[in-house]
């Protein structure tokens, strides 16, 4: 099943460090737990294959399995997949070109990847292609407005917004003062681009949820459906 591409993930070679930061309550552990709570809520209980795209170290696999699904992960980074393979079955692939038959997967989900893909529309089109008609795509990511590339979150939960929000572009690590983005950089993507890539691919938006424990949400969850009769 595995398909190795010439592209290299920005996460190659830092998997142990990344997994540690995501699991550290003093770093990204809180954000990870809240995002996994939201994923659980949006997925709901179910069964059958659930494809985790950009699965990284497979950090959410156990919670998805506990809902009743059989998670399978795909990521570009061999290094991330080395850890993930202890948590779920995995394949190395570029998610713009999945080695998976069309109309074959009932559920696709992802966490923290919309700021990572260089070709977001290519990824969403590919997810749409592999989903069965009636299948669901659940996307959890950092909130593009209140936790995006130009949002500076303060200790009290307020957010200083800097100019730059309105276009999609990759920001170098030096732009950020945070553990993960400060090492790998991230894409700034306005909310309209995130929602329009999903609509452009042919999906119907089923639910949008803004998560976070403070007044301003730091997580965005989206459920999109490939309606029956669409291919
Ligand atoms: C921020 S990490 C998120 C990992 C995991 N989903 C999590 O929640 O911890 C982004 C992941 O997307 C992967 N990625 C980025 N572009 C990709 C692509 N085109 N195809 C497959 N994986 C990709 C990276 O290798 C990395 O593991």
UniProtKB/TrEMBL annotation:
Source domain of life: Bacteria
GO BP field: methylation
Family annotation (Pfam families): Methyltransf_11
Keyword Protease: no
InterPro entries attached to this UniProt entry: Methyltransf_11 (IPR013216), SAM-dependent_MTases_sf (IPR029063)
Domain Methyltransferase type: 51-137
Gene Ontology molecular function, alphabetical: S-adenosylmethionine-dependent methyltransferase activity
Keywords: Methyltransferase, Transferase
Protein name as annotated: Methyltransferase type 11
Organism: Syntrophobotulus glycolicus (strain DSM 8271 / FlGlyR)
Lineage: Bacteria, Bacillati, Bacillota, Clostridia, Eubacteriales
